């Protein structure tokens, strides 16, 4: 494991494996770099893979107050470590972060977005989550995110209270505020026209129709966007399915 110091002094921890052109993996809510580890393993024969813990997650630091701009600076610090330019793979809210970094002009050579939540949500959700975290109600924050952002049915949320990974979710509960900010504030359509980077937008066939439609529209709005829908897939990151898609796009 290695680390880089972001612009505001936050330590960002990462693993670097493989050889070839660099690619940085940016994962989403309730994820740390373990989420991207299988995909990293499948890509490292063709790429130098940087798989990192976003701030507040895993071994990385967390300097308050949070701002999306600071997360973009974290990604830019990793791009510098990679040599000044890199491909980026973004998953879920991490895809929104990668897209926002592209809007800001980060040196991203090619970008793959998997299941990017670009439909937008009520910004009041951020305030409600922040209040739960401030009150120390981490379990309630987990369930609020699962219900309001992920869209899980109430009975499923209740069942997950006793899941063996529940302590892990509660440990990361404060970062749901960060991911909700990213979900509630996707890039505006007029911002997308300035992205010259080739972008592959990917969704799973089993995701809801409105989600797929918003991603297809995103690809249309991007000057160099492409869209594909993967048969039999949903919001979960299935590395054996995604790795060939990522390789084909980035190496073409």
Automatic annotation (TrEMBL):
Source taxon at top rank: Bacteria
Domain annotation AB hydrolase-1: ranges: 24-239
Any one biological process term the GO annotation gives: glycerolipid catabolic process
Gene Ontology terms for molecular function: triacylglycerol lipase activity
Keyword set, alphabetical order: Hydrolase
Pfam families: Abhydrolase_6
InterPro entries tied to this protein: AB_hydrolase, AB_hydrolase_1, AB_hydrolase_fold
PANTHER family assigned to the protein according to its UniProt record, in alphabetical order: AB HYDROLASE-1 DOMAIN-CONTAINING PROTEIN, HYDROLASE, ALPHA/BETA FOLD FAMILY PROTEIN
Name of the molecule in the record: Alpha/beta hydrolase
């Amino acid at each position: 494991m290695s680390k880089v110091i972001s612009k505001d002094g936050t330590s960002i921890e990462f693993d670097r494996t493989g050889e070839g052109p660099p690619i940085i993996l940016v994962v989403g809510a309730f994820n740390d770099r373990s989420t991207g580890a299988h995909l990293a393993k499948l890509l490292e024969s063709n790429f130098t893979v940087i798989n990192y813990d976003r701030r507040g997650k895993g071994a990385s630091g967390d300097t308050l107050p949070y701002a999306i701009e600071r997360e973009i600076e974290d990604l830019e610090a990793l791009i510098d470590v990679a040599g000044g330019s890199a491909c980026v793979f973004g998953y879920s809210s991490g895809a929104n972060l990668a897209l926002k970094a592209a809007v800001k002009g980060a040196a991203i050579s090619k970008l793959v977005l998997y299941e990017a939540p670009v439909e937008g949500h009520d910004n009041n959700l951020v305030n409600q989550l922040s209040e739960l975290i401030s009150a120390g109600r981490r379990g309630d924050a987990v369930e609020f995110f699962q219900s309001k952002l992920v869209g899980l049915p109430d009975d499923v949320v209740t069942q997950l209270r006793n899941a063996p990974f529940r302590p892990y979710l509660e440990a990361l509960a404060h970062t749901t505020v960060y991911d909700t900010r990213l979900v509630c504030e996707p890039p505006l359509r007029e911002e997308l026209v300035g992205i010259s980077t080739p972008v592959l937008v990917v969704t799973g066939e089993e995701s809801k129709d409105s989600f797929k439609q918003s991603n297809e529209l995103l690809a249309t709005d991007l000057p160099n966007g492409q869209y594909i829908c993967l048969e039999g897939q949903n919001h979960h990151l299935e590395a054996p399915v995604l790795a060939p898609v990522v390789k084909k796009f980035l190496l073409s």
